[in-house]
Design a protein that fits this description.
The chain has about 200 residues and is mainly α. Helices cover about 60% and strands about 0% of the residues. The chain is built from nine helices and two strands. A hairpin with a 5-residue loop joins β1 and β2. α1 crosses α2 and α2 crosses α6.
């Protein structure tokens, strides 16, 4: 689907998406191959992220993440990195994989040529377009279905897009803990919580 124009933006079949969702919810073996519509699968991924009981970026951190939109340069990235360190491990791991994937989709936004000179169409989904589509599904102020859920003011919408753009563009460095910070954390933990060190070293 990387060459599919408008992936994640073009509409899908609600009936087919619902059928796919029910199959996943029932724990069936769902095979996604060339017979499936790319747009149906893309819509299902967005729906999954939107309807998670606990959003990928916890709602408690919504305001903190949005506030980084007012920062610039290294200060913005440093603050985003510290906020990412606050995510529960399963949220952090899933978000990193999603951001890697979105960066890969964005790399195919422009048209290119294969070795024989034939044109390969781009999907037109730039980082900005992907941030616009995925931002509200990842950064949520309210739970889906709650009062005012989905009713974002313009400032919040713009901030969400900008924050997700930065996350996609810099995911490779934002999730990387510097050796200096690792040593500092391990030194402090050795004094306060030595049992935690083994767990952290396994995750490293």
């Amino acid at each position: 689907g990387l060459q599919t124009v408008g992936i994640f933006r073009v509409g899908s079949s609600k009936k087919r998406v619902q059928q796919l969702r029910e199959e996943f919810d029932q724990g069936l073996d769902v095979f996604l191959d060339e017979h499936q519509s790319v747009h149906d699968v893309a819509a299902l991924l967005k729906e999954f992220l939107r309807d998670m009981p606990n959003s990928l970026i916890p709602r408690e951190l919504y305001g903190a993440f949005l506030s980084t939109a007012t920062l610039e340069g290294p200060a913005q990235l440093d603050t985003l990195q510290l906020l990412l360190f606050l995510l529960p491990p399963c949220h952090s791991d899933t978000l990193l994989r999603l951001l890697r994937f979105l960066a890969e989709v964005a790399r195919h936004a422009e048209s290119s040529r294969d070795p024989e000179g034939r044109e390969i169409p781009g999907n037109k989904m730039t980082v900005s377009n992907l941030a616009t589509v995925f931002g509200p599904n990842i950064l949520q102020k309210e739970k889906p279905g709650e009062k005012d859920a989905g009713a974002l003011n313009f400032e919040d919408s713009a901030a969400i897009i900008l924050v997700l753009q930065r996350l996609i563009e810099h995911h490779h460095s934002l999730f990387m803990v510097s050796p200096e910070m690792q040593c500092d954390v391990l030194r402090r933990l050795f004094q306060t919580d030595p049992d935690v060190i083994e767990y952290l070293l396994r995750r490293k």
